[in-house]
């Protein structure tokens, strides 16, 4: 299998409007509200990129719809709470110096995606896109050339917590399918020979973005998903047979908050280079398992029903 040459960019395309109400130049935040900051254009390495043709539907304590994405940035106050944002329409990404010319881009974020907004909080919402080629596109945040894991998690039914026990962080996940993505901008890759013959590739990522979709609940979103933003993830890859690769446990933790994610997966499409080391290439996940846990003992496990593993 030829190595897929993806130089990856995370495109943060933020969009929001509330009905037909015009937006003030300086949004006023009232009691009980937070502020969404939604830039739509960003310049990187001398090139600017923009999302074109998308519409956005927001549901939650307030419902809102955006159909005009012509502005370079939108900010909007919303009542604090948990929201879902759905990107619709015939969207595409363009370079601003070549209007009308589409840049190939793949959406990897869950769609719809869940986010929370706290009172007095300024909150960015990011839709991440991966862009092939020799340039990276990133609207709203920094450009990257990193990798990602994306797919759908399936959790089994969850029994209620016994009376008097601490709140169950994962109560809202029981029996649900949850789309997710873990994306990172950069990584440190180390090649080593284990046991004198086993050629291993170890990856330590830079800060990650961890996003989920579906009705996962405000407690999980705030205390788990949000707490993993900016943490580092690690894993290794090594030959299993002459033509297949095994992926070591993928670990993402926030030690200060005492939470973590562990992923074990099989991706048969991963290949081995002429030097005997596993290739950092994209492959479909054939089978995968995930455990979300707190260091105090609470946990939930599920399967990865489908997805993509793209180490960089």
Supply the number of structural domains.
Answer: 2
Average pLDDT reading: 82
Q: Strand order of the main beta sheet, please?
A: 14-15-17-18-20-21-23-24
**Content-based structural category:** mainly beta
Q: Termini separation (Å)?
A: 17 Å
Topology, number of strands: 24
Strand fraction equals over 45%
Shape descriptor reads globular
Radius of gyration: 20 Å
Q: Which percent bin holds the helix content?
A: under 10%
Number of discrete helical segments: 1
Q: Give a quick account of the main beta sheet: strands, pairing sense, barrel closure.
A: 8 strands, antiparallel, barrel
What is the H-and-E element order?
EEEEEEEEEEEEEEEEEHEEEEEEE
Low-confidence sequence ranges: 1-24, 134-144
Protein name: Lipoprotein
Organism: Corallococcus macrosporus
Keywords: Signal
In short:
Residues 1-17 form the signal peptide. With 312 residues, this protein is mainly β. It contains one helix and 24 strands.
Explain how this protein is built.
- The radius of gyration is 20 Å and the shape is globular.
- 39% of the residues are buried.
- The model is unreliable at 1-24 and 134-144 (pLDDT under 50).
- The longest helix has 8 residues, at 218-225.
- The strands form five sheets. It has an eight-stranded antiparallel barrel.
- It has one helix and 24 strands.
- The chain is mostly beta strands.
- Helix content is 3%, strand content 46%.
- It has two domains: 1-144, Sandwich (Immunoglobulin-like); 146-312.
- This is Lipoprotein.
- Keywords: Signal.
- Residues 1-17 form the signal peptide.
């Amino acid at each position: 299998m030829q190595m897929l040459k993806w130089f990856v960019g995370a495109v943060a395309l933020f969009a929001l409007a509330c009905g037909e109400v015009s937006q003030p130049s300086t949004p006023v935040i009232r009691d009980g509200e937070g502020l969404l900051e939604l830039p739509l254009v960003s310049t990187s390495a001398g090139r600017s990129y923009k999302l074109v043709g998308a519409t956005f539907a927001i549901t939650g304590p307030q419902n809102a719809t955006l159909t005009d994405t012509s502005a370079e940035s939108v900010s909007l106050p919303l009542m604090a709470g948990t929201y879902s944002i759905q990107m619709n329409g015939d969207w595409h990404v363009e370079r601003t110096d070549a209007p009308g010319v589409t840049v190939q881009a793949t959406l990897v974020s869950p769609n719809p995606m869940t986010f929370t907004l706290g009172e007095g909080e300024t909150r960015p919402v990011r839709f991440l896109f991966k862009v092939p080629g020799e340039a990276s596109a990133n609207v709203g945040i920094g450009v990257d050339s990193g990798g990602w894991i994306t797919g759908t998690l399936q959790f089994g039914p969850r029994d209620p917590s016994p009376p008097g026990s601490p709140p169950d962080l994962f109560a809202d996940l029981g029996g649900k399918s949850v789309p997710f993505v873990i994306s990172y901008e950069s990584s440190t890759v180390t090649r080593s020979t284990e046991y004198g013959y086993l050629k291993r590739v170890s990856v330590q990522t830079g800060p990650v973005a961890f996003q989920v979709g579906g009705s996962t609940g405000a407690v999980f979103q705030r205390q788990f998903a949000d707490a993993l933003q900016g943490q580092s993830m690690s894993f290794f890859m090594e030959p299993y047979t002459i033509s297949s690769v095994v992926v070591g446990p993928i670990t993402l933790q926030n030690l200060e908050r005492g939470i973590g994610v562990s992923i074990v997966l099989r991706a048969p499409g991963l290949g081995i280079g002429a030097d005997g080391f596993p290739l950092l290439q994209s492959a479909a996940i054939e089978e995968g398992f995930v455990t979300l846990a707190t260091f105090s003992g609470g946990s939930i496990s599920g399967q990865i029903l489908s997805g993509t593993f793209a180490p960089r």
